[in-house]
Amino acid sequence: MSGLSSVNDSRGLYLSIAGGYIWNRKADKLDPDYGEQTFTRVDKTEGVRAGARYADLTGMVVGVEFKTHPEYGESINVTIDSNENRYIISISTNNRFSQDMMKCLLVMDLEKELFMKPYDFVGSDKKRAMGISFRQDGEKIPLRVENALTKEKDWFKTADKKAIRRFFEDLTEWFVAEVEEVVIPQFGAKPSAPKAEPAESDTEDEVEEETPKAKTKVKAKAEVEVEPETKEKVADEVSPLKMKKALKAYITENYEGEELPKLSREELVIWYNLSLETEELPFELWTVDAEVDKDDLDKQLNFLMEK
């Protein structure tokens, strides 16, 4: 990969992945690698993404962290040093590309240079194939993670939409928790990165286009504050997956007919602390619309089974 703008000091340039390319969305038409790409959103409307686009990237992974944007949700940011430049690949965790990225981080050799190349195409069987291909030492990295959450194929034939949606949410949460516990500590201190939040087009288009998102509607925020020190302690000592497992068990025991709604990381900490104090959980402030398009679920299932 070449032709990206230079960067200064330890700060990096944010890049995104969409439509089978790596994008610098901030590049204008004067950039020699500038290109545009049309795409169809889940709601069938057409959009256009633009910027400098690249087929692949080779470099050393020097940092990984998860960030939560107040509007667009959670993303995984992978910092890569390449040719004396630093790039931050930012991918929404609601995007299928992120699952390949997390699988790779769990199985790759972090001491070796990594080659990554996204793909997105419709094959001869008329099925859409999308993801990221990775190589080290010239060999393709198999993206199979031991002990990952799974279900037998027959389960998907009888499970309802709500159960299937919850399974895919739990699967993503499992990968996030594994990366947080196994990968991130290997880098020590977090690398310096730009403070600016990703632009709207860096996340919204990808989330809408690539992955069906649970339609969670938050009516209001819980009027419960957690001291900053407590938040940091929970975030450091208890993974999101463990918090959710504990909350699900607590809800099953104390709230018949209820289930854990989709929560942001900060909201999860609030709910977890409430459960530790045996306080009432504010279900009335969170409503979940469980309707998910069947075609979207089928695409998710096919994607999972093909890996």
The gyration radius over C-alpha positions equals 20 Å
Helical fraction:
25-40%
Identify the strand order in the major beta sheet. Answer: 3-4-2-1-7-6-5-8-9-10
CATH topology of the largest domain: OB fold (Dihydrolipoamide Acetyltransferase, E2P)
**In whole angstroms, how far apart are the ends?**
26 Å
Q: Which CATH class of the largest domain applies here?
A: Mainly Beta
Number of strands: 12
Task: Report the principal-axis shape.
Answer: globular
- DSSP strand content: 25-35%
Tally of DSSP helical segments: 8
The low-confidence parts are 2-10, 190-226, 288-294, 303-307
**What profile does the largest beta sheet have?**
10 strands, mixed
Which structural category fits the helices and strands?
alpha+beta
Structure commentary:
There is one protein chain. The protein is α+β, with helices and mostly antiparallel strands and 307 residues long. The protein has 2 domains: 13-153 and 174-199, RuvBL1 DNA/RNA binding domain (OB fold (Dihydrolipoamide Acetyltransferase, E2P), Beta Barrel), CATH 2.40.50; 215-289, no CATH class. The protein has helices at 96-107, 153-158, 161-183, 200-210, 228-237, 240-254, 265-276, 294-306, and strands at 13-18, 21-24, 34-40, 46-54, 57-69, 73-82, 85-92, 114-122, 128-136, 139-140, 215-218, 286-289. Strands 3-4-2-1-7-6-5-8-9-10 form a 10-stranded mixed sheet, sandwiched between helices. Strand 8 and strand 9 (128-136) form a beta hairpin. Helix 1 (96-107) runs parallel beside helix 3 (161-183) and helix 6 crosses helix 7 (265-276). Mean pLDDT is 76; it is low at 2-10, 190-226, 288-294 and 303-307.
